[in-house]
Structure formats: C-alpha cells, structure tokens
Amino acid sequence: MGAVSPPAPLPDSHIGLEARAVSADHLEVRIWLRLLACSAQIEQEIRARLRRHFGTTLPRFDYLAQLERHPQGLRMSALSSYMMVTGGNVTGLTDQLAADGWVERVPDAEDGRAWRVRLTPQGRAEFAVMAAQHEAWLAELFEGYAAADKKALYEQLGRLRVHLAQGRAAVAEPGVAAPPPPSSPSPSPRRQPRSRP
Fold first, then answer.
1. Does this model's pTM top 0.90?
2. For the chain, which domains are there?
C-alpha cells in the first residue's frame, strides 16, 4: 500500500491562528496554534449557525446543555465551574433565560440557603430541537474525515488533557489544592459542549 499523500495546504485566507507559526517554532508551539485554529474554525461556524437559525448564542447553548445533563438542576457556582466562566456571566444568562421561561430557580434541597437552576419543560423542549441540529452540524463539518482518524484524534486529545491536568497538579502552589483533572469528553455534543462566552 502506498504512502498517504499529505493534505493540500490551506490558502492564506483560511490559515487563521496558524499564521503565527513559523518553521523555526518548537513543535509544541505549532501544535498549540493548530489546536487553537481548529477549535476557532469550528466554533465560529457553530456560533454563526446558532445565531442564524435560532437567534441564540453559543454561551446560551452551552448553559442549557449543562442543565440538560443535570435534570435536578445545578447551583450557580457549579454552572460557572462547568462552563469555565465567571459567576457574573452565569447570573446574566440565568436572568435572560428565566425571563424567556426556559429556566427556573428552585430552592436547593440540600441547603435551604442556596438555589438551583433547572430547565423548565419549555426550555427542555426548545433545547432538544437546538441540540439535534447542533449535532447534525458537527457531523456535517466532520463529514469525509475518516472514521479511524476521528477515533485516533479523540483518543490522542483525551491523553493530552490528562497529561496537561497532571502537569498542572504537579506545579500547584504549596497549600493550594490543584483543580481536579477533567472528565473524559462525551461523544455527544448535546451532553458535553465547551466554549467561551
């Protein structure tokens, strides 16, 4: 079997963040820029489609996806941690979605002083439509990319996340607890989305 030909180079207009890289850069720098470029390329496309088809934003979609994974609801601090955004951002999203009737605040059964946020029936139904379309868009974006390559990429990125988490724990300041390593990413985009607001 002959060697697989490398993919054709991208035109300058599509290089994006990888344009920062030069041949003299360390491999680690080029890997980092390539990861950023791939993530940004997919994220920009998903953001545009969510805005065009549903009039919503990717942070709102991520917020709803986290609540869909936790039917009992989540405390605001947990939502902030899962989404990796500030508490102020979560509060703003909660206020907007509550006003739309998609989420509701309920007393926390474990702590009477705290509140949880959960999806309303309307919010769950609306999100189900968006999540199905979101998954179809991702399948479309990856269409034509070999299944074996997707599986290998998924596994390699999982190992990279564990490696990075272990390295961060190793250099944690004395007396400061290191954050737990991330859980393995779910293959379903409606159950484990990630983005920045």
1. no
2. 23-167 (1.10.10.10)
